[in-house]
């Protein structure tokens, strides 16, 4: 059990039953990219040998980075801020990619090429990016491995809904497991690997908590411990963050 | 001299070996061509500084030729039209060529000795080869590239080649496994860093298998296999025999 103070140390409070207040949105400078509202291919856009949705997203990000000076091109800028990028459901059909639809996608390299180019953009600018990928939909596991290798930090969320763990008394306080699959090893030989490998999450109306999973004491002679091996077909969300800024916090409060 | 070394990692990150070889060869006075595909120049520079080598100085003196893959990719995608005489080393990304000839040409030009050069044997270092597959290169193209490099650097120039690949047991990435298996057969030395089968341990970060492929040169010879465990620290890596970690003794 984590002590209450760690909850207040990190994170922001939200209320998932309400929408964000408009004043909050207006006071902050933000950009959005919705593929289906983008204009058709700009004149002079070179052939990139990549899914056009990803190509346009890359161009949009690069444009924001250079126009807003996140690449250090404007030394006069007083306030140095970090550009935070969030990309939702990368790889899903919403981006025009069929990697989630078939085992042999039309262009299996689009997603990884996009991630590589994005990595380049992030490395040379003051920005951090968090991406969600519906890993449970991608049948070609080789692509998942490549996506993992191209990311700095990889965290998997495995929900208990629909799996046999939902009724397991071991997990009754939680909604799912958190798998830390990769942590960044930037600018250093060593990386900060935490001791804890068993983490579970709970989604409440106002807080998202991640806690260490403790096995209860084995009091009964017949109780058997549930195996912690991942179920092969479990529903899950895999989110990967590529960033110039290493994210090493174990407890993430959203 | 003339050795092809394969760095391989499974369930762990073997890049500490790349940092080691980079600073080792630079300190030895060799001319190094470093094809760095996965990380930025500053990342390697900061770690090299901890190991006592300045990459910026080496680059300035002409000892180190550094290809920053991420930057080349951005130049290709966002930059101006390339000059006809200077194709980008990562030209295969734009789809105009399906082989890695441009990349090999870059290596060849970097390591061909020019008259006033006083450096010792040339070295090619690649981190890491598996990325090329992710970027759309066919496994055959990757193997051709390594073969050309092997012939040119090891056989012709009597230099050394060190290449890092990732591999996982139960990996479903067949293309990658194909490349790794083929490279294992053609390597003189294999350094295989593996995460411990029992899971993470604070004092032992992994085990390294050192395979000297004596069978490659001599028909009747057996490969020599040595296994050590290691712990990575801020400025160096300590190796010890299995089970004899300082924490245990």
TrEMBL record, chain A:
A Pfam family the protein falls into: PAXNEB
Keyword Cytoplasm: yes
GO terms under cellular component: cytoplasm; elongator holoenzyme complex; transcription elongation factor complex
Keyword line: Cytoplasm, Nucleus, tRNA processing
Nucleus recorded as keyword: yes
Localization annotation: Cytoplasm; Nucleus
Pathway info: tRNA modification; 5-methoxycarbonylmethyl-2-thiouridine-tRNA biosynthesis
Single GO BP term: tRNA wobble uridine modification
Organism superkingdom: Eukaryota
Main location: cytoplasm
Membership in a protein family: Belongs to the ELP4 family.
Function: Component of the elongator complex which is required for multiple tRNA modifications, including mcm5U (5-methoxycarbonylmethyl uridine), mcm5s2U (5-methoxycarbonylmethyl-2-thiouridine), and ncm5U (5-carbamoylmethyl uridine). The elongator complex catalyzes the formation of carboxymethyluridine in the wobble base at position 34 in tRNAs.
Protein name, as recorded: Elongator complex protein 4
Automatic annotation (TrEMBL), chain B:
Annotated metabolic or biological route of this protein: tRNA modification; 5-methoxycarbonylmethyl-2-thiouridine-tRNA biosynthesis
Entry keyword tRNA processing: yes
Record-level GO BP terms: tRNA wobble uridine modification
Keywords from the named record: Cytoplasm, Nucleus, tRNA processing
Superkingdom, natural source: Eukaryota
Family from the record: Belongs to the ELP6 family.
Protein known as: Elongator complex protein 6
Species the sequence originates in: Thryothorus ludovicianus (Carolina wren)
Gene name of the record: Elp6
């Amino acid at each position: 059990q984590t002590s209450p103070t760690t909850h207040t140390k990190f994170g922001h409070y939200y209320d998932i039953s309400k929408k964000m207040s408009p004043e909050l949105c207006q006071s902050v400078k933000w950009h959005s990219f919705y593929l289906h509202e983008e204009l058709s291919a700009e004149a002079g856009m070179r052939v990139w040998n990549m899914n056009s949705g990803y190509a346009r997203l890359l161009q949009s990000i690069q444009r924001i980075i250079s126009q807003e000076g996140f690449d250090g091109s404007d030394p006069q800028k007083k306030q140095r801020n970090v550009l935070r990028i969030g990309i939702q459901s990368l790889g899903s059909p919403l981006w025009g990619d069929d990697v989630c639809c078939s085992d042999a996608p039309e262009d299996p390299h689009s997603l990884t090429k996009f991630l590589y180019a994005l990595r380049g953009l992030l490395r040379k600018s003051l920005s951090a990016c968090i991406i969600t990928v519906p890993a449970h939909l991608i049948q070609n596991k080789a692509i998942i491995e490549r996506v993992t290798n191209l990311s700095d930090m990889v965290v998997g969320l495995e929900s208990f809904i629909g799996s046999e763990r939902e009724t397991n008394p071991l997990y009754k306080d939680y909604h799912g497991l958190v798998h830390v699959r990769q942590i960044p090893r930037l600018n250093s030989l060593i990386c900060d690997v935490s001791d804890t490998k068993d983490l579970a999450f709970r989604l409440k109306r106002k807080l998202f908590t991640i806690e260490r999973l403790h096995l209860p004491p084995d009091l009964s002679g017949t109780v058997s411990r549930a195996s912690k091996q991942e179920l092969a077909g479990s529903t899950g969300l895999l989110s990967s963050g590529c960033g110039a800024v290493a994210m090493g916090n174990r407890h993430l409060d959203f | 001299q003339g050795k092809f070394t394969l760095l391989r990692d499974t369930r762990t990150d073997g890049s500490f070996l790349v940092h080691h070889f980079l600073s080792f060869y630079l300190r030895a006075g060799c001319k190094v061509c470093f094809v760095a595909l996965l990380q930025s120049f500053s990342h390697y520079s900061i770690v090299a500084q901890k190991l006592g080598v300045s990459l910026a100085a080496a680059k300035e003196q002409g000892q180190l030729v550094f290809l920053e893959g991420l930057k080349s990719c951005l130049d290709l995608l966002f930059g101006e039209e390339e000059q006809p005489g200077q194709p980008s080393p990562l030209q295969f990304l734009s789809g105009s060529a399906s082989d890695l000839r441009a990349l090999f040409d870059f290596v060849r030009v970097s390591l061909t000795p020019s008259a006033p050069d006083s450096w010792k044997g040339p070295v090619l270092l690649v981190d890491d080869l598996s990325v090329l597959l992710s970027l759309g290169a066919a496994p055959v193209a990757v193997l051709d590239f390594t073969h050309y490099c092997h012939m040119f650097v090891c056989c012709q120039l009597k230099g050394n080649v060190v290449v890092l690949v990732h591999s996982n047991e139960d990996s479903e990435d067949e293309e990658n496994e194909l490349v790794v298996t083929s490279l294992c057969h053609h390597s003189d030395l294999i350094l295989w860093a593996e995460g411990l089968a029992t899971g993470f341990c604070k004092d032992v970060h992994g085990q390294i298998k050192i395979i000297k492929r004596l069978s490659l040169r001599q028909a009747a010879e057996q490969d020599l296999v040595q296994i050590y465990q290691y712990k990575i620290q801020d400025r160096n890596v300590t190796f010890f025999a299995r089970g004899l970690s300082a924490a245990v003794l």
